[in-house]
Specification:
alpha/beta, globular, 21% helix, 9 helices, Metallo-beta-lactamase, Chain A, seven-stranded mixed β-sheet, eleven-stranded mixed β-sheet
Length: 349
Amino acid sequence: MASHVRIIILGTAGAVPSETASLPAIMLHFEGNQVLFDCGEDVQRQFLKANLKFNVPLVICISHMHGDHVIGLPGLLFNFNMGDRTAPLTIVGPQGIFSYLHHLHDDIGLRVECPLEVREIQPDLKVLQVYTNIEDPILVDVQPIEKNVVFRNKLFAISAMESRHSVFTLAYCIQERPLFGTFHPDMAKLKQVPEGPLWKKLQRGKSVEINGKVLDPVVEGIVEPPMRGRTIIYTGDTMPGPDYSLLSPSPDVLIHESMYLNQDAKLAEEKQHSTSQDAARVASRIQAKYLLLTHRSSRYKDPSAFLAEAQSTFPNTILAKDLDVFELKKTKVLEKNVKERESQDPAEI
């Protein structure tokens, strides 16, 4: 399992970029794997600024088919192709994501030559339509969605549910596989388990047989019970209302849009977005450990106002800024890694 899970903020603007805030894009980095939430305009340049690699396994999760969340896709995919990408690419998104990519192929010559899978979530959230080639609109497979899971590998599972916005919008949850409990070698020796392959089995929580007796490593105190893996929820654009605890109760990090300040609550409701206080109430209700505020309107000149409003309801709120990097450790402590921005040592938030 990854020792750290990194959250790399590539874009925090809502709808209109500014000099300091690019359009929506947030990267999660597990060892050897990347997961990108949304793909705002010019995200490929943000990859470069954040020192991200262009040729590692990547899952792109698109929340909805509004331009500020998908316009960066063609540029990023062109970049992959020009760089002779060979690593697998999975694109998960709502109905319409494949059609968008297919028309980009037909209209501007977009090609994807690395191993590709497009997993299109249907509005009933019951099935995935799977495509493997944007040049040819042949449906390869239809897969049932079980327990909201839309992607799975050896490190994590990605689940999805509907947010509440002006178009069909998906919230995503990254759930790391359970972490093995702490192994106590002294107890293994006490139980006469010889060092070697049997210890490895015990470390993975598997029972072994010694002198005709089956030893359960947890029951025998050789290994502590497994810990729940780290969990991160990304809401996409949304009004308050959805119960994101259906994806995972008490997530470690909730990444929630905060388009408006409370003074514009009526506008937020009209546009089907959230205020920073709305996001804080959601974090409190689902008992998140940390709240990251993102997707903020450029109409406000002082971003710290978002933080002040949210922290009055949910103190463990962090104002995400472009190119911030956070590490979610095994202990579930979230630390801001400002070394990634070449300034100073990591400081705990």
